[in-house]
């Protein structure tokens, strides 16, 4: 049994800036508690920052813990792996305490919806099967109707 606390910790990590639209940082919580069945992160989005379009090979759970955010789900049109059309099919506003489950291989984006306020959530990335690697595929897009490349 391992215990940790996400508050006041100084182990913030910068994230790959190619995967976000603005400044974002995270804390890797699964390392602190030695979790082996899922990757757990505290992700903090500065004002207006959000993820770029992406999907995961395993399920993901988001728990909103501060500010206002959103989760947007997209449908892919076309067979090309790196260039294709998209359409937003759902937008879910996320407020403190909200929990959402994102099924594996769901094309989506999430983050802060307010250019004046920050947003943070806990992300639980559930491994697709025991002893496997959780993988995310990231895309460059206009968030409206087209994807131009894999990042």
Question: What's this, in brief?
Answer:
The chain is mainly beta and 151 residues long. The protein is built from one helix and eleven strands; from the N terminus they run E-E-H-E-E-E-E-E-E-E-E-E.
Number of strands: 11
| Count of separate structural domains | 1
User: What percent of the residues sit in helical stretches (DSSP H or I)?
Assistant: under 10%
SSE ordering? EEHEEEEEEEEE
**Biggest sheet descriptor:** 11 strands, antiparallel
Q: Report the sheet-strand fraction.
A: over 45%
Q: Report the mean per-residue pLDDT as an integer.
A: 91
The CATH superfamily is known as Jelly Rolls
Kindly describe this structure.
- With 151 residues, the protein is mainly beta.
- It has a single domain, classed as Jelly Rolls, CATH 2.60.120.
- The chain has 1 helix and 11 strands, in the order ββαβββββββββ.
- Strands 1, 2, 3, 4, 5, 6, 7, 8, 9, 10 and 11 form an 11-stranded antiparallel β-sheet that branches.
- The chain is globular, with a radius of gyration of 15 Å.
- The N and C termini lie far apart (38 Å).
């Amino acid at each position: 049994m391992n215990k940790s606390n996400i508050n006041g910790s100084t182990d913030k990590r910068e994230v790959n800036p190619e995967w976000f639209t603005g400044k974002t940082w995270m804390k890797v919580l699964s390392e602190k508690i030695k979790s082996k069945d899922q990757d757990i992160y505290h992700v903090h989005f500065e004002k207006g920052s959000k993820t770029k379009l992406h999907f995961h090979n395993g399920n993901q759970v988001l728990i909103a813990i501060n500010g206002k955010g959103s989760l947007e789900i997209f449908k892919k049109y076309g067979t090309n792996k790196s260039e294709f059309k998209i359409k937003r099919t759902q937008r879910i506003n996320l407020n403190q305490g909200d929990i959402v489950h994102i099924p594996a291989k769901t094309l989506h984006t999430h983050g802060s919806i307010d250019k004046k306020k920050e947003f943070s959530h806990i992300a639980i990335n559930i491994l697709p099967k025991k002893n496997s690697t959780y993988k995310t595929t990231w895309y460059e897009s206009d968030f409206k109707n087209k994807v131009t490349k894999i990042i």
